[in-house]
From TrEMBL, chains A, B:
GO BP terms in the entry: diaminopimelate biosynthetic process; homoserine biosynthetic process; lysine biosynthetic process via diaminopimelate
Gene3D superfamilies cross-referenced by the UniProt entry: Acetylglutamate kinase-like, VC0802-like
GO cellular component: cytosol
UniProt organism field: Antribacter soli
Annotated EC: 2.7.2.4
Name of the protein described by the UniProt record: Aspartokinase
Source taxonomy: Bacteria, Bacillati, Actinomycetota, Actinomycetes, Micrococcales
Binding site for substrate: T47, E74
Family according to the record: Belongs to the aspartokinase family.
Residues that hold ATP according to the record: K7, Y8, G9, G10, T174, D175, R185, K210, V211
Length: 423, 423
């Protein structure tokens, strides 16, 4: 008998019909002899609708109250799901984040889980019942206040509970069949990845793959929780995210696991920066103070004749306006000549644990882009990832070209069925 | 400086605009120097919408899960109200029933408050902040499970908190100006009652007046909490529900406080019952076992020739079918000849503490109905109430005739403004 934590997202419980469908799946897992804990998100667009209500009241709602408001969404879905499962003859009980023992820090709106003490969940399992837990929410230890974990928080709740309960696997149900070598909407020949390491999944999630929240992968890696990403519409196996296999097993592991892309970043270029010690530091202190989360940085070699250089960096689109305003405020002080803002960029990332031991991956990537006529504007690398910035309107072509160049396309005759929208 | 508990119903916080209007009123009470605790219901029809969702899942949802589902409604309204008050520059914090220390028994769906331990509410007041509390909900002491108090539960939450905090007054805000001598939709000349005793309010609430939930009045009487029923749309004083005034003040008190009516009952007649000892007991044991909440009972004098009698009783419409079925099942055993069911009845109740010391009130009531040509089918009385059953379609005429006969109509030239629907 296995202990399984299953997580269902908002699209899997969007209405009463979907709730009943998911309930059937859960009841089957229970009847198959497993102990089952279910983490559920708010139904469909509930969270956005509640946010909209808050905006109608005030443009800047107090975070503590916003968290109380938003957690109403999971309260609704978890109770309905418990009803639907009970209706199938399987006993089920629902629990808020607080009742499930999800303890967080007090940073409302993006709290971090600091501990999981799932006494009531264990009791429920011992009674042979299914435990339904509200995702996305926790409680502070000191003040007993309700917190939320931020977008993607339900994935993190599921992984944290799986770790706290010592579950055999954490199943993340979604509307796609698993993690793909590229977004199937862009690359129709993309294939489902059967297995990927935590490190690769971290790089994929950080590079724009939206199937798993980054923080949940970090959590899974830290506690060694195997995560199975799969479709709630089929019973086919999805993608297993787990530790790297032992060396002897790894012989056949592919060099590249996938190509991720991201359209949600912009590029700011600070033009004509005096090339003195400390100038770059001054610029990035201002950027950091504006709250921006910068990604890639490129500094040109300064022209000997002028002693001036240009510094470019990328950041999420949403951080653009505040950062531009902050930089404009220190133009005289730092002495740069102008600022450029470009939101028409795209980022392509090639991820694979194998590239550590295979030289030449970068050269092959740049060659593939050159052959496809695509210009590279910025480059950054980690041990298992290479990212390049291109024009946004050539990003799709770039993804397809790289996917083919690295032999990731589905071979002729292989059948791949996409269950959902392939996000 | 007074400590005021204010309760706002669902119609007072039906949308963002209404929430802001109520927030302004609360901020004014706070700025006037009061300590303010606010109890709030779910917005508009939220509770009914959630019930409908549950019905889409299963016709018989588990009560524990239904309570978790329904309490999401107050979570939304309380957070929005706290945001709106904060936005006006007055600090406010919202609390669930659990956080506010509303402890109940474990009867899900209609739990009773067994204790109120409002530590966090007191702390909040001591910091000079407004405390917003979710109405209608509490938590069990043993299992830490969420419960609901049933329809009208927010009134009870407000009165219980006022008692627990030793508040100076509990203000129940509604969409009418207060308690009226009759329903103004039926009797346009009805007048607002300035003051009414707990006992009279109990009789009015039990006889069909819907402005205050019966259980909240019981609670207020037990703990001596003055309750002020008033309109959230005006600043005019409403109706004060409080203990009977001292004898010397009571000289001018009116004999009759009001005329209530109720269309929600049906009448069952058991025809041809053998007039033996214990037969009536047998019938009402069956009725009680069916879960019906019976109101009035009349047994005819048995005809000497046959030794048979008829027994009639009234009960809520909703209890009718189950009770008829239960009685039909024991027809042979008890030996009555037939059953009659009549849902076309109306009940009129005349309530007034003064009738204790004023004989002749019954005679005056029956005379007024006779003069209006209205037939009386059943009669029941308490110390301060007389109720009669009439045909449902003559109930309105009966209410108007009695209201006039007891001098309750507004005198010529008195201006009465109805704020709302006068329910």
């Amino acid at each position: 008998m296995a202990l399984v934590v299953q997580k269902y997202g908002g699209s899997s419980v969007a209405d009463a019909h979907s709730v009943k469908r998911v309930a059937k799946r859960i009841a089957e897992a229970k009847r198959a002899g497993n102990d089952v804990v279910v983490v559920v998100s708010a139904m469909g667009d509930t969270t956005d609708e509640l946010l909209d209500l808050a905006q109608q009241i005030t443009p800047l709602p107090p975070q503590r109250e916003l968290d109380i408001l938003l957690t109403a969404g999971e309260r609704i879905s978890m109770a309905l799901l418990a009803m639907a499962i009970t209706n199938l003859g399987v006993k089920a009980k629902s629990f808020t984040g607080q009742q499930a023992g999800v303890i967080t820090d007090a940073v409302h709106g993006r709290a971090r889980i600091v501990d999981v003490v799932p006494h009531r969940i264990r009791e429920t399992l011992e009674k042979g019942q299914v435990a339904i837990v509200a995702g996305f929410q926790g409680v502070t230890q000191q003040t007993n206040d309700v917190t939320t974990l931020g977008r993607g928080g339900s994935d993190t709740t599921a992984v944290a509970l799986a770790a706290g309960l010592g579950a055999d696997v954490c199943e993340i149900y979604t509307d796609v069949d698993g993690v793909f070598t590229a977004d199937p909407r862009i690359v129709p020949s993309a294939r489902k990845i059967d297995r990927v390491t935590y490190e690769e999944m971290l790089e994929l999630a950080a590079s724009g793959a939206k199937v798993l929240a980054l923080r949940s992968v970090e959590y899974a890696r830290r506690y060694g929780v195997p995560v199975h990403v799969r479709s709630s519409f089929s019973s086919a196996p999805g993608t297993l995210v787990a530790a790297a296999p032992q060396e002897e097993e790894a012989v056949e592991a592919p060099i590249i696991s996938g190509v991720a892309h991201d359209r949600s970043e912009s590029k700011i270029t600070v033009v004509g920066v005096p090339d003195h010690v400390g100038t770059a530091a001054g610029i990035f202190e201002v950027v950091a103070a504006s709250g921006a989360n910068i990604d890639m940085i490129v500094q040109n070699v300064s022209a000997a004749a002028t002693g001036l250089t240009d510094i470019s960096f990328t950041l999420p689109d949403g951080d653009g306006p505040a950062t531009m305003a902050a930089l404009a405020g220190v133009q005289a002080e730092i002495g740069f000549s102008s600022l450029q803002y470009d939101d028409q960029i795209g980022k392509l990332s090639l991820v694979g644990a194998g590239m550590k031991s295979h030289p030449g991956v970068s050269a092959q990537l740049f060659g593939a882009l050159r052959d496809a006529g695509i210009n590279i504007e910025m480059i950054s690398t980690s041990e298992i990832r290479i990212s390049v910035v291109t024009r946004e309107d050539s990003l799709d072509d770039a993804v397809r070209a790289v996917h083919t160049a690295f032999g990731l396309d589905v071979a002729d005759g292989e059948a791949v069925v996409y269950a959902g929208t392939g996000r």
